[in-house]
Amino acid sequence: MTRTGRGSILPPRLRGPSTAGRPEAPDSDPSAESRVKLVSSIQELWQFREVIKNFVSQDLKVKYRRSALGFFWSLLNPLLHMSVITVVFSLLFRFPMSQYSLYVLSGLVPWTFWTASVDGCCMSIVGAENMIKRQYFPKLVFPFSVVTQNFVTFVLSLTVLLLILAPITGFRPNASLCILPLSFLCIIAFSLGVGLIAAVVTVYFRDMQHLISVGMSTWFYLTPIIYPLESATGEGPIPHAYRYYFKLNPMFSIIQMFHRPIYDGRLPTTPELAGAVVVSLAALLVGMLIFKRCEDSLVFSL
Amino acid sequence: MAENFITLKNVSLRFKLYSTQHRSIKETFVNVLLRRNYGRPTREVTAVNNVSLHIPHGRRLGIVGDNGAGKSSLLKVMSRIYPPTSGTIERRGFLVPLLEVGIGFNPELSGLENIFLTGAIMGFSRREMTRRVDPILEFSELRQFADTPIKYYSSGMAQRLAFSIATEIDPEILLLDEIFSVGDIHWVQKAKHRMQSLIDRSSILVLVSHQMELIERYCDWTIWMRAGQIVGEGPPSEIIPAYQASEAGVQV
Q1: Are the beta carbons of A135 and B79 separated by less than 8 Å?
Q2: Which domain range does residue A153 map to?
């Protein structure tokens, strides 16, 4: 009798979460309890890594199987977007900057990852209704798989676009690119954090995703991606008086984590770096706490 | 080998029923403006009401009761799909709920890929599934369609595959909601044998069924549920006649 995989899906002992009848621990400090909950949910996520792997690879397979060009279709979207923006804006507005296409590319590709992640997370729980109602899952698996899958596409398309388009954009590899892993971590944490909240809210309010897509396009124009906040000479389309408010946008610091090394060829400034790290960690923490709080009751609202 | 068990202590499961299935922000906004309360829960249903139950190692438990008595809800609480509203559950053992066939099939993927996906959902790594692929394809008689996307399968074929995957694994605790019987006579015979061997391999069986002969054949202990509560407990030879008598009484 083989019993492999026994421990991997279910902890040997399980005490159901309950409101009444739970023996009160004498040291039931609420913050300690939520810390324990966070740690155990990460352990549970690790136990379900096979499921995540499968979800990610199935999504990628389905996405790319049906086309002969496969992966290159996913490059086409940011490529076209970037070309249109470059042509339109460099003809119409003439921002005081060189290598405008590289600037657009280095902000647009991370932005695409972030919106795709939040959009995907939005429907991740609702879309998995059939599975959730037939088998126990830590619900974290679904948004986590969405973000992972989008991240794979993101890193591949960023790499390929930068290299292929280097002759046009004038991209040059430089030492400051070493900061990129940290940039990736920041944008993943921020996207997952916001995505977790979006996933929960969508379960209760199904029209959330429409609001989110409207919100996202507004947010896009408020974030310096197709225009510079200030160029090297201090010029820019935004009046000086308002620039401070643009810097309060959490996505500003995170996008700067990509603009700086890729476009400017230098490290982000300390406020940008600190802003990005703090904002993304905060988003992840808040997202996790909200998600864990609602996780058990989600199944009743599906 | 460790003893497997399930212990439920004062477990209740309550559902809030809303007048509309899914709320939207727009509706909620309008309701608040017009001071309507459509969004609030209109009714609370107690599906499982203060059930305490200990299922020891080796037990074959049958659950009988009318529709809506809370049998399936109880299975879903045991398998953690529904967290109990109150009460506690303790459990030891690798549990497989076979409540509905075909969880998580992705129609775009081939049969083979779906075997791995379903396996992962049930807690098996790719390596562990690799050696189960052959027996699954063998039993389901779908080897020639292994690389065909599931969406081109007939519903019978998909169910055959799902059944074959679900019965290839070795659960310690097996939760069964009715017995799957699909397809032609030849298949039903094969499926019965396989089900029997799956049940024999598991150390705890919990079976919900309306077919009394199944309970009699497979179970050595029975609980009888009505309105979310256990109203009778004992060997099938005692409970089933009592249940049938009360059912007949209602019909007369």
Answers
A1: yes
A2: 48-301
* Chain A residue closest in CA terms to B98: A134
Buried (b) or exposed (e) across A63-82, using 16+ Cβ within 10 A? beeeeeeeeeebbeebbebb
Quote the Cα angle for B171-B176-B179, to 5°. 120
A19–B95 CB contact, under 8 Å: no
* Nearest beta carbon to residue B128 from set A4, A134, A299: A4
Residue A114 lies in a domain: yes
CB atoms within 10 A of CB A214: 10
Q: CB neighbours of A237 closer than 8 A, spacing ≥ 6? A: A93, A95, A227, A228
Q: What is the pLDDT of residue A5?
A: 36
Q: How is residue A207 written in tokens?
A: 């029209």
Total of domains in chain A: 1
Which chain A residue shows the shortest CA-CA distance from B172?
A3
Digit-coded pLDDT (tens) for B12-47:
998 877 655 556 777 777 777 776 655 555 678 889
Q: What is the CA radius of gyration of chain B?
A: 21
**Quick check: B6 pLDDT over 70?**
yes
pLDDT tens digits, B104-159: 677 888 899 889 888 888 878 888 889 999 999 999 889 999 999 888 988 788 88
Flag whether A22 is in a domain: no
Residue A24 burial by CB count (10 A; 0-12/13-18/19+): exposed, middle or buried? exposed
ipTM surpasses cut 0.90? no
Query: Between chains, do B24 and A299 touch, taking CB under 8 Å as contact?
Result: no
Estimate to the nearest angstrom the gap between the alpha carbon of A217 and the chain centroid: 16
Name B5's bridge partners.
B92
Chain B nearest C-alpha distance from A294 (Å): 12
Domain B5-94+209-251 fold is: Rossmann fold (3.40.50)
- Which amino acid, B177? D
Q: With beta carbons less than 8 A apart as the criterion, state whether B52 and B10 touch.
A: yes
Q: Is residue B54 scored above 80 in pLDDT?
A: yes
Q: Which sequence spans correspond to the domains of chain B? A: 5-94+209-251, 106-169
**Touching B: A residues 197-216, CB under 8 Å:** 204-208, 211
Alpha carbon distances (Å) from A186 to A270, A284, B140: 15, 10, 47
In our burial notation (b when 16+ CB lie closer than 10 A, e otherwise), range A192-201 reads bbbbbbbbbb
Q: What is the pLDDT of residue B167?
A: 85
Residue A53 belongs to some domain of the structure: yes
